[in-house]
Amino acid sequence: MTNNKQKNNGKNHEEKKTEEEIKQEATNNKELVQESKTEENKELTETEKLSMDLIKSYEKIDELTDTLQRLQAEFENFRKRTEKDAKRLSEYSSASVIGKILPIIDTFEIAIKNSDDEKKFKEGTVMIYNEIMSVLKSEGLKKIEALNKQFDPYLHEAMMAVEKKESEKDTIIEVLQEGYMLKDRVLRHSKVKISK
Are residues 155 and 117 in the same domain? Predict the structure, then answer.
């Protein structure tokens, strides 16, 4: 009987341990569940923060995209306006020169009427040349001085080179065609003959 009691006590003890173990396990599990929930809440909070950041980023992207589109539209309008102004300027910039050339046309007409008289025709032609040169000079045109100058490839184009003892080497001895500059830009190089 004593053995039976001990067996029962052992069983009860095992049952008690088991109950205690079960309670301990439940407590442990409860703590784990609470920790898990706390971590989930933290994760949810992190997720919510990331979602908010993402939403803010999309809003900023939309704002910047809108700003960029407006700037592109403004630039396109500015470009069109500038092209239109440049076209208008180039169309009417020649009006000033044409206005200056009209008196030359009048002089041509007079010269043509007097073509029977050689002397008057020649005088008319010289007048026309002088008027044209005067108009072009007022616009900034100037003749490139070449005769007896040292050859400069930026201003002159050598068409021939000949032996000439009385001239230094590369000196321009004859101008075959006049060269011209508009302000500081060469429009046409002087075609010249140089000594070698």
Answer: no
Instruction: Pull the structure tokens for residue 1.
Output: 């009987």
Q: How many domains does the chain have?
A: 2
Listed residue (131, 71, 76) closest to 100, CA to CA: 131
DSSP string across the chain: -HHHHHHHHHHHHHHHHHHHHHHHHHHHHHHHHHHHHHHHHHHHHHHHHHHHHHHHHHHHHHHHHHHHHHHHHHHHHHHHHHHHHHHHHHHHHHHHHHHHHHHHHHHHHHHHHTTTSHHHHHHHHHHHHHHHHHHHHHTTEEEPP-TTSBP-TTTEEEEEEE--TTS-TTBEEEEEE--EEETTEEEEPEEEEEE-
Task: Using alpha carbons only, give the angle 47, 48, 49 rounded to the nearest 5 degrees.
Answer: 90
Quick: pLDDT tens for 141-188. Answer: 899 998 989 999 999 999 988 888 787 888 889 999 899 998 889 989
* pLDDT (0 to 100) of residue 72: 95
Q: 166: domain range?
A: 141-196
Shared domain for 173 and 84, answered yes or no, is: no
